Amino acid sequence: MFNSLWSRAPGVSFVAKRFKHEYAPRFKEVEKAQKGRVSVRTGGSIRGNTLEFGKIGLRLKSEGLRLHANQLIAADKVLKRELRPTKSTLITRFVCDLAVCIKGNMTRMGKGKGAFDHWATRMPTGKVLFEIKGSIHDKVAREALRKAADRLPGQYEIITPESQVRVSVTDLIDKPEPVNYLEKLNKNPTRKWANLQAFRTNPMYKKYSGRY
Question: Quick one: signal sequence residues (predicted)?
Fold first, then answer.
């Protein structure tokens, strides 16, 4: 089948492209969203505030804001241009899934929401936007991230795995040790978890497990 297709169209590539939805989700119908506000993490959450994949990254230092997809694309192009000679990998830590709708000026109130205009994403304080992975010199990576930050609104900082975790505009804390919640739950199980574990050790469950 694929040989016949290749003979008909030799210039067409059938290699699938993954992770191409960061700046425009692949939605068939655009769901309009309310304006909303950028969340302020008052509960002490640090999810997404540290490096997970790369050796150096770019993190938002100022107050949370809403970033336009075109602004992020401009920063992405700068980073890819700087990293192309080094064969390094650029990792994005966001998804532009917020549909922004705009109504024209001097428009009367009512008659529904405006038409779709562009995609955006909400970026809270301390969130990591880009990470760089690979064998790249530290000065080259920092210069690339600095140029990318110039394309974006707000203030940013360059971080490494040894950097502290930003919890607010002014406060930094040490990175906490990872918690093994499964081991913690096994030591002090709840009634629901204990019943589930007892059911899994049942020989009748093991006999028919994975059949359907």
Answer: none
Decide if 75 contacts 130 (C-beta within 8 A): yes
| b/e map 111-142, b = 16+ CB within 10 Å | eeeeeeeebbbbbbbbbbbbbbbeebeeeebb
| In a domain? residue 1 | no
- Specify the pTM: 0.76
* Contact call for residues 177 and 164 (beta carbons, < 8 A): no
> What is the biggest distance separating any 2 CA atoms in the chain, rounded to whole angstroms?
72
The DSSP secondary-structure symbol of 126 reads T
Q: Which residue has the higher pLDDT, 212 or 107?
A: 107
- Residue 131 near residue 53, CB atoms below 8 Å: yes
Domain housing 185? 178-211
Residue 10 carries which DSSP code?
T
Q: What distance, in Å, lies between the first and last C-alpha atoms of the chain? A: 32
State how far the Cα of 10 lies from the Cα of 204, in Å rounded to an integer. 55
Sheet holding 98-102, edge to edge: 65-68, 115-123, 98-102
Instruction: Give the single-character DSSP code of 107.
Output: P
DSSP 8-state secondary structure symbol assigned to residue 73: H
Distance CA 59, CA 84 (A): 22
pLDDT digits (tens, 9 = 90+) for 106-148: 888 888 889 999 999 999 999 999 999 999 999 999 999 999 9
State whether 117 and 160 are in the same domain: yes
Among 51-60, 95-104, 141-150, 151-160, which is the least confidently predicted range? 95-104
Instruction: Specify whether 68 is located in the same domain as 168.
Output: yes
- The conformation of residue 178, written as its DSSP 8-state character, comes to P
